[in-house]
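Marked as duplicate of an earlier ticket. Keeping the data here for the record.
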Amino acid sequence: MTDRSDEAQEKAKPRRDERTLTTTATPEQLWDAWGDPRVIKGWFADDARGEAVPGGEIIHVWKAFGMEMSHEVLAAERPHRLVLQAFSPQGIPFTQEMRIERKEGKTVLRLVHSGFGADADWGKEYDGVDSGWKMAFGVLGLYLERYFGRPRHTFTLIRPAAFDFAAAHRLFSSDEGLSRWLGRARGMGEVGSEVELTLDAGETAQATVLVDTGTEVLLSWPPAEGALELKAFPMGPAGNALCLRGHSWSLFPEGGAALESFAKKALERLAEAL
């Protein structure tokens, strides 16, 4: 029988967000995806600078939010380990530890994001970070396996709106929902599903469901050699926001530009559908 004091202590422990990624990329490539600004901006932040050495800093630039986030480098052991510490916009410290190892011929990343409180007020913060990392790992996996080293065209489109998150997710995750704003859809389902989308001008796109967090969805987007994130999140006192974030590693600039132009129109249709 479990002692109640033990249960109380367990509930009082700070929460950590932990996840793994297995890839055919080398340990060096995976480490550089977190520690080399030239590679970081190939899949994660809009831009990055700094140096991953102990005592140094890595700065992530998020243009759509007008924000730069500085991460102090606590440990850097390429290609095995990287530990970063930063502060949230609310001034709360958090730590990200990445450990990388070779296992059965593949490379395995383990990320531990710590710095969450244990009380109920931290629930939404934790859920938001957890969903964000799931989406980011989906993008990272695609980048490592197919497009590593290519320059990226990326955009983040944000639309303040009043909506219910469950309703937004239905528009992200079903044929009926997607057909109302993204394109006539067939085959939308669980992660791994192949989705055929008929777009504005009658052209088709064969997308794959890479991630579904329960609130957000990541689709591959072959026409642009990239991916499209379907996102929704709270914006504090300002209310909620819908967001489409695109990534294109196409060797032809028009690929990313076409995806961005399409996404701008789709975002307005999404807001109207809600």
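See parent ticket for discussion. The helical segments are 4-12, 27-35, 37-40, 123-147, 165-173, 175-179, 253-273.
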